[in-house]
Amino acid sequence: MFRAALAEFVEYGYDLASTNRIVEQAGISKGVLFKYFSNKEGLFRYVCERGAQEMERAFDLAPEELPDDFFEALKVLAWREIEFSQGEPEIYRFFQRIAENMAHPVHQGVIATIASSTQGLYLSIMSRLNVSQLRPDVPYETILHYFKWVMEGAKKHLFAVEPPPRDVTLLRAYQERAMEQFDVYFELVKHGIYRR
Fold first, then answer.
1. Taking the domains of the chain in order of start, what are their residue ranges?
2. What percent of the chain has pLDDT above 90?
3. Helix (H, G, I), strand (E, B), or coil: what is residue 66?
4. What is the dihedral of CA 180, 184, 186, 189, to 10 degrees?
5. Other residues' Cβ atoms within 10 Å of the Cβ of residue 154
């Protein structure tokens, strides 16, 4: 049922999503659906919570998986996000839809749920990064926001120029090309654009 509902919400958004199409895709009766969810909003919340759990699993890193160098660690996290967007494209697009229309009343209702379920993991990872190399006069939160904005722009550009291949045998080569491009952005963030 999760996959059928996820696909429906990704394709049509909350307002145009049809529980009739969801039950048809899931191969269940409408009675079964509403036995577990009182309405479409309840089903939407379930998809959000389940999707957030899948994201948490993708970013649940063991201590040895996170390099000591701040930028190398951020590269690992950025790469995890790229891998997640390729491995679970529908979940990734689902959360993108929510982010693109945060004013929607149902979206507003689930944003707190998503934030609370991922905030703990995020804080746990961020607290493990080595910040001794960073400028002490710039707040840590500002650095993280700046880095996130750069990465968001880099990903949008990359996916527009060369979308991820559907053939998994081509994925590794694609990832290596993507990482080469990201390394350029990482270096710019790390050292700036002025001559050294």
1. 2-191
2. 22
3. coil
4. -170
5. 19
One-letter identity of residue 94? F
Encoded amino acid at 149, one letter: W
Site of tokens 């703990």:
120
pTM: 0.72
| Predicted confidence (pLDDT) per residue in 127-180, tens digit | 778 888 888 898 888 887 888 788 778 877 877 787 777 666 777 787 788 888
> Token pair 């970013």 is at which residue?
59
| Residue 10, C-beta contacts closer than 8 angstroms, at least 6 positions apart | 90, 93, 94, 97
Find the DSSP H helices in 88-104.
89-100
Structure tokens at 35: 């036995």
Q: How far is CA 18 from CA 25, 121, 155, in A?
A: 11, 33, 31
The CATH code of the domain at 2-191 is 1.10.357.10
Query: What is the reported pLDDT for 117?
Result: 63
